[in-house]
Structure formats: structure tokens, C-alpha cells
Amino acid sequence: xxxxxxxxxxxxxxxxxxxxxxxxxxxxxxxxxxxxxxxxxxxxxxxxxxxxxxxxxxxxxxxxxxxxxxxxxxxxxxxxxxxxxxxxxxxxxxxxxxxxxxxxxxxxxxxxxxxxxxxxxxxxxxxxxxxxxxxxxxxxxxxxxxxxxxxxxxxxxxxxxxxxxxxxxxxxxxxxxxxxxxxxxxxxxxxxxxxxxxxxxxxxxxxxxxxxxxxxxxxxxxxxxxxxxxxxxxxxxxxxxxxxxxxxxxxxxxxxxxxxxxxxxxxxxxxxxxxxxxxxxxxxxxxxxxxxxxxxxxxxxxxxxxxxx
Length: 309
Prior knowledge:
Strand content: under 5%
Order of helices and strands: HHHHHHHHHHHHHEEH
Low-confidence stretches: 61-68, 305-309
Strand order of the largest sheet: 1-2
Mean pLDDT: 84
Shape: globular
Largest sheet: 2 strands, antiparallel
Helix content: over 70%
Radius of gyration: 21 Å
Number of helices: 14
Structural class: mainly alpha
């Protein structure tokens, strides 16, 4: 039901997808502009890493569908990343630090600001079927969204590192049998880890938007709410991420055009749906339909009654 309601809300608010996409494009362009200061060095190091990793032969054999095989392809991409960072930091550590700051701190910071804006827009629609201006909401929420984003980026680092480490570990597996099971592992492992991550932070931004408490109290409220429907939240998140990964494999480069612009707002909407459902809050699914989940006291166990918000 959470997945179904999330899709309905996405379709009913599809205009927000384009607004968020424009914001993402502007944010990415801004970060690329900052990185362009050292574009000559980055291009040189990327070229060296490209040759060392043997990516030319991978693309020449048809990437995922050619003779290279998915295991060899993913291994080559993982090697490229390792070689690139190794060459960059051995050549100029300060430029490497700058690259990491812009790519892994500033860009996620900007993306998380967009997340809060989207959740705020969805709160207006879900609670009162109200449409709001993206720009106006961005300006109105910039103070709270910035504080949330700063903490969220730092908080998410261990989770993201675990996902990257698991992907790297899969590419280190050797043996003919892994050529056959690698596509399944490479899809299931990150989807599983991202679903686990959702159990801990899916309710954070919604709680901040709905109750307007400070960052840390919002996290506590959000996690407690999500864990009331832990199994449903986990299973829905797993399906959501698994579909995104599988479709990315199937569509290849076209996933950048089709999947990525949709998956981000869909995840934000799913988190709002999960929070509203867990809190027993009625909400608009579309202009003519109101969904009524179980009330809060029906979701809580007797021993949890003291935590009713």
C-alpha cells in the first residue's frame, strides 16, 4: 500500500518532479563549475585511470551485453575509481581533498536541501491538497533545510561508505560462478543496505517538516514512527531501490534520463507516506481520494503508549 500510494502521489504531483529536476541540474552544474577550476588535472588523471583499468576494452566489447561480461565490467569500473583517486592523491593531495569536498559533501548538501523542500511541498498537498511554489518554499525553509542537510550529510557517510565498500567487495570476488550470480548480487546488496538505511532515517525529514522541531528531536520522532511499520517500510524501500537498480542495468545510459529524475522525488514521497501512515495521519492521495491509515494508538503496542506524540 505504501508503494501504491507513493506512485499515486508522484503522478498527482508530477510537476514537482520537473522542479526538483531543474534544482538538481542547477546544483550539479554549480559543483561541476567548482571542479572545472582543475579540469585539466582531473581529465589527465581520469585518462590515466581509464587506460590502467582497461575500460577501453570493456566498452569495445559492448559493456554489459558484450563479451566482457558483467563481472569483468563492474570490476573494471571499480578499478577505474581506485586508480583515479590513487593517481589524484599521489599527484596533488590538496586537489584531491577539494574534489572530495565538492563531490561528497557540497553536492549531497545541496541535494538534501532539495529533499526538505520536496517534503514540505508534499506535506501541503497530503494534509490539505494544497499546491505551493517550489521557489517560495525553498526560500521559506532554507534555514531549517540547511541545518538538516549539514547533519544528514555527516550522518549518512557511514551508510554510504558501507554501500560503496560492499560494491567494491563484490568486484573482488573471483571465480567463474560469480559471472552468473554477480548481476543478482550487485542489485540485491545495495538495495538491501539502502532499505536498512531507510529504517533509520526515512522519517527524519518528514518529522522535521510536520512538527518543526530541532534536528535531533525530529530524528528521534521520525525513527520511532518508521519503526512502528518497520517491516512494511523495509520491504517497500527494498522493492523501490531494487527496481531502480534493475531498471538502470536494463536501460544503461538511458537511466540517467529516465530513472534518476524520477527515483529521487519518489523516494522523498515514499518517506512522507511511510511517516504519515506510521503516525496514523490521514492524507490526500489525489484530489479525490483521502487515505485513512490505522490510528496511532492502534499501531503502538501497550508498552509504547507513553511515547504517543
